[in-house]
């Protein structure tokens, strides 16, 4: 349990990739603060399971990722309860699909706020404490769309490209403070959010489940296999190790070969 005595914040972590991050960190002994929306009972169950796994503490904070003041308060909450924050993973994100001329302005604003600006506000809040301790790990979840584009996803692609650039910038700023800053860019990850899209797509396009998975969702992934949340979390754990101290400013593709083409 190489993270005993260390504490982490993971945004957007009440399900999917974010919850996988939190579970992986807890399994290695870290205190973890999770964040996000969802059913209160399910969130409490997840929080309690994290404490059981870690033998340490797990907290939940409902901070709204569109509110910089709430993000700062979330970090202050974690620092007060844990005594500091050594690991911060920015993972919160939403999606909307529409051509540019039909893209609702409020959707653009929300995606940029949650997918990009919240990462800046999280970084801004955790860096001072990491500098004082001389050790930190900051990770961002981008996407294959941090490297390539798809039509009708203007806000999402812009935000994920921005995440990649922001990650590199902060990595340079804190390079001499024992802090690494890296980005993970998954392709399609098998989460409840993705699975729940399949029936609607089957009906809308008149396709079978297998056709939706292989010809729609996995069309760009040469392996024709979904990435799993646990695979993404395993890479995050490696980047938190002391052995990864020389790895910073990197953008790791985990997309079944999508961006190799």
TrEMBL record:
Pfam families: adh_short_C2
This protein's UniProt keywords: Oxidoreductase
Name used for this protein in its record: 3-hydroxybutyrate dehydrogenase
EC number, as in UniProt: 1.1.1.30
InterPro entries assigned to the protein according to its UniProt record, in alphabetical order: 3-OHbutyrate_DH, NAD(P)-bd_dom_sf, Sc_DH/Rdtase_CS, SDR, SDR_fam
GO molecular function, one term: 3-hydroxybutyrate dehydrogenase activity
Swiss-Prot/TrEMBL GO biological process terms: monocarboxylic acid metabolic process
Similarity-based family: Belongs to the short-chain dehydrogenases/reductases (SDR) family.
PROSITE patterns for this protein: ADH_SHORT (PS00061)
Phylogenetic classification of the source organism: Bacteria, Pseudomonadati, Pseudomonadota, Alphaproteobacteria, Sphingomonadales
Gene3D superfamilies linked to this entry: NAD(P)-binding Rossmann-like Domain (3.40.50.720)
């Amino acid at each position: 349990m190489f993270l005993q005595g260390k504490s982490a914040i993971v945004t957007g972590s009440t399900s999917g990739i974010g919850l996988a991050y939190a579970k992986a960190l807890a399994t290695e002994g870290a205190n973890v603060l999770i964040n996000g929306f969802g059913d209160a009972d399910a969130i409490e169950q997840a929080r309690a399971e994290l404490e059981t796994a870690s033998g340490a503490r797990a907290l939940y904070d409902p901070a709204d990722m569109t509110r910089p003041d709430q993000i700062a308060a979330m970090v202050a909450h974690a620092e007060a309860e844990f005594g500091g924050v050594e690991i911060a993973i920015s993972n919160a994100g939403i999606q909307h699909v529409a051509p540019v001329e039909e893209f609702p302005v409020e959707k653009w604003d929300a995606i940029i706020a949650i997918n990009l600006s919240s990462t800046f506000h999280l970084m801004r809040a955790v860096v001072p404490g990491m500098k004082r301790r001389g050790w930190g790990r900051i990770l961002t979840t981008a996407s294959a769309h941090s490297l390539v584009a798809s039509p009708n996803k203007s806000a999402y692609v812009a935000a994920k490209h921005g995440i990649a650039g922001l990650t590199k910038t902060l990595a340079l700023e804190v390079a001499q403070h024992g802090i690494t800053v890296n980005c993970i860019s998954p392709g399609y990850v098998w989460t409840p959010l993705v699975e729940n899209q399949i029936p609607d797509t089957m009906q809308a396009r008149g396709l079978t489940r297998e056709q939706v998975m292989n010809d729609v969702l996995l069309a760009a992934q040469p392996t024709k296999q979904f990435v799993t949340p646990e695979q993404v979390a395993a890479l995050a754990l490696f980047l938190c190790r002391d052995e990864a101290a020389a790895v910073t400013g990197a953008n790791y593709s985990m997309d079944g070969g999508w961006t190799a083409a």
